[in-house]
Design brief:
By secondary structure, the chain is α+β, with helices and mostly antiparallel strands. The protein contains four helices and five strands; from the N terminus they run E-H-E-H-E-H-E-E-H. The protein is about 40% helix and about 25% strand. Strands 2-3-1-4-5 form a five-stranded antiparallel sheet. The longest helix is centred in the N-terminal third of the chain and has 16 residues. The C terminus is likely disordered.
């Protein structure tokens, strides 16, 4: 059974174009991994003047992990490396898997590594293929 991870990328004060660029770069990197698919989340049209809704729709990805245990680990490693390359902007992340949500904003690299490790351990499935 495939598992889907939702990723939301935001950055305080960023224009929708900046978020689209950040999200597009992350999507391209994730597509290089052992995952089934990485798609942009189609958003509802935003009400006039609702920039937050627009950015949320632009910065959302769905990653279909497939049934292998290494899929989530690879994705989390790629996200950590991608975020490390964007040190100036430090985009905030919201990862949702099943009913579990991990939000990262002002975290050091060490804090991010610990949070991702805990998130990954919570989602390790005994029946997954290595």
């Amino acid at each position: 059974m495939d598992t889907t991870l939702r990723i939301l990328v935001t950055e305080e004060g960023a224009d929708p174009e900046d978020i689209a660029d950040l999200t597009g770069c992350l999507r391209e990197e994730l597509l290089q991994l052992d995952v089934e698919d990485v798609t942009s989340v189609p958003g509802e049209p935003a009400p006039p003047g609702a920039r937050v809704v627009e950015v949320a729709a632009i910065g959302a990805l769905l990653v279909t992990l497939g049934s292998t245990a290494k899929g989530l680990s690879q994705v989390l490693d790629a996200i950590r490396q991608w975020r490390g390359r964007h040190r100036e902007s430090r985009p905030a992340l919201r990862l949702t898997l099943d009913d579990d949500v991990l939000e990262i904003s002002e975290a050091t690299d060490e804090q991010l590594a610990k949070a991702f490790d805990l998130f990954e351990r919570r989602h390790s499935t005994a029946g997954a293929q290595p």
